[in-house]
Amino acid sequence: MEIIQLINFELINSNLKEEWKKMSDQISAGLQGEDGFIYRDSAIDENGKVYCILKWESKEKAEASRKRMQKKYQDAMEAFAKIANMDTMTSEVLQIV
Length: 97
Known about the structure:
By secondary structure, this protein is α+β, with helices and mostly antiparallel strands. The chain has helices at residues 17-31, 59-72, 74-83; strands at residues 3-11, 37-44, 49-56, 84-95.
């Protein structure tokens, strides 16, 4: 069953919006071709809160991709942690009905 994953977090500083936009493009490019990946988009509000939506063929494929990407893009994950306030991050997985 297809799922949607909703992720949101705050930037460490709202002045990091441009850095996030570049990183977001890199994330989207990295997801292309991942098994089960359908769609990703993100938005940012005026206060520096980021909202991401991802669509996957299944929860299992999303989780397998996450594990692969953590290993493959370890440097990018470290860069992400420098601009994202990880304490504010939330993630929800919703089954499409």
